[in-house]
Amino acid sequence: MIEQMLQGSYGEKIQLVHVRMAFSREIDEVGKFQFRKLAELSRIIVRIAIARFRHGARILYYPPAGPTRNAVLRDVAILLATRWLFAKTIFHFHAGGLGQFYEASSQSLRFLCRLAYFHPDVAIRLSAYTSQEGKTLEAKGDLVIPYGIEDAGSLYLRPARQPRGERESVRILFVGAVSESKGVMTLLEACRLLAGQGVSFQVRVVGQFGSREFEQQVRQFLRENGLEGRVAFLNVLTGSRKWEEFAAADIFCFPTHYESESFSVVLLEALSFGLPVVSTRWRGIPGIVEDGVCGFLVPVQDPEAVAERLRRLIQEPELRSRMGAQGRKRYLEQFTIGKFTETMRAVFRTVAGLPG
Fold it and tell me: How are strands ordered across the β-sheet holding 59-62?
């Protein structure tokens, strides 16, 4: 989303200068301490300072990290070293949970957080359903701005999604980090229940395993429950290969309870492809998927509920078609990249004191 924002046009006198933060090379490094990251932290602080003076930047746009101790301490170090250089600050909460983390922290850490995070000019959250980080941080402005994405679905959608033939299995797609907290085991438990009921289906999982240990756990579960022929792991796919999986799918399932989940881009992608969705009532997801209209929302870590909703969609092709059409309509009305860029343009210009 930051990359898409950088590609936007925001009118005269607005220039975005990007200092990339890349602490983790692989997904299994995320949230883990490494001495290499300390050196990268120092380089990022220096780059921010250089960019500030080289380009005359007056506003710091910063995406605070998720609610883990290492990530927060990293943010605190960067913000204490650089925020004072800028006249104004915009915090954009791509990850959720900082407010809860702050409230549960020790007095010493809360003191550091107040120095680093408090009183930004604008705090942006992604949904009315996400936690009010701006209120916790006493932001001068607290805005709700949902993501918007390019319409990849328009290039791949068939005129009408044809139902599977009697001998074909309905295809369920999952895209995301392959981890416990993204709901992978919940999905696989639901698959076990469906298989036990004699329901025909295939699952395609796109994404990288969060750890070797979790991969071993998953593959052992598949072997023990006879699901190896029903579930395929495709690793990370990008570009046309990723979109082809969306286009070939019938249902999108994303039963996440990820601690930093805020507003899942993969759900927007599913809606843009006209896929009915089964997901969780978690963080900003109810702001994306309207329960009973473009999909179903279930409680977190409830494989029985996931299995029941998947079974309905598998066995009722007309329901799949209707919900998929409603999902695409919702995407076009609320979540296009044009709408996102237009709203961010207004924010940037207002904070900069420029006319709209």
Answer: 59-62, 88-92, 122-125, 142-144
Q: What is the CA radius of gyration of the chain?
A: 22
Same domain for 329 and 342, yes or no, is no
**Same domain? 67 vs 200:** no
Residues 6+ apart with CB under 8 A from 177: 27, 207, 208, 210, 258
**Side chain identity at 29, as an amino acid letter?**
E
Same domain, 130 and 180: no
Cβ atoms of 206 and 246 within 8 Å: the answer is no
Mean pLDDT over residues 154-166, rounded? Answer: 62
pLDDT digits (tens, 9 = 90+) for 179-222: 999 999 999 999 999 999 999 999 999 999 999 999 999 999 99
Contact 123, 89 (CB under 8 A): no
Q: Are residues 98 and 221 in the same domain?
A: no
Beta strands in 87-230, from DSSP E residues, in sequence order: 88-92, 122-125, 142-144, 170-175, 201-206
Is the pLDDT at 168 greater than 80? The verdict is no
**Which DSSP string corresponds to 335-353?**
-BHHHHHHHHHHHHHHHTT
State how far the Cα of 295 lies from the Cα of 336, in Å rounded to an integer.
Answer: 19
Q: Which of 54, 9, 13 is nearest to 351 (CA)?
A: 13
**Are 290 and 243 found together in one domain?**
yes
Instruction: List beta partners, residue 143.
Output: 124
* pLDDT at 138 exceeding the cut of 70: yes
The CATH number of residue 211's host domain is 3.40.50.2000
**Is position 17 within any domain?**
yes
- Domain count along the chain: 2
Average confidence (pLDDT) over 110-114: 97
Contact predicate 162/249, CB 8 Å? no
Q: What is the arithmetic mean of pLDDT over 49-70?
A: 94
Residue bearing the bigger pLDDT, 37 or 112: 112
Instruction: Copy the structure tokens of residue 262.
Output: 């805020």
How many angstroms separate the most distant Cα atoms in the chain? 65
- How far CA 66 is from CA of 55, 78, 149, 313, in Å, comes to 29, 15, 22, 34
- What's the pTM value of the predicted model, to 2 decimals? 0.88
How many angstroms separate the CA atoms of 87 and 92, rounded?
17
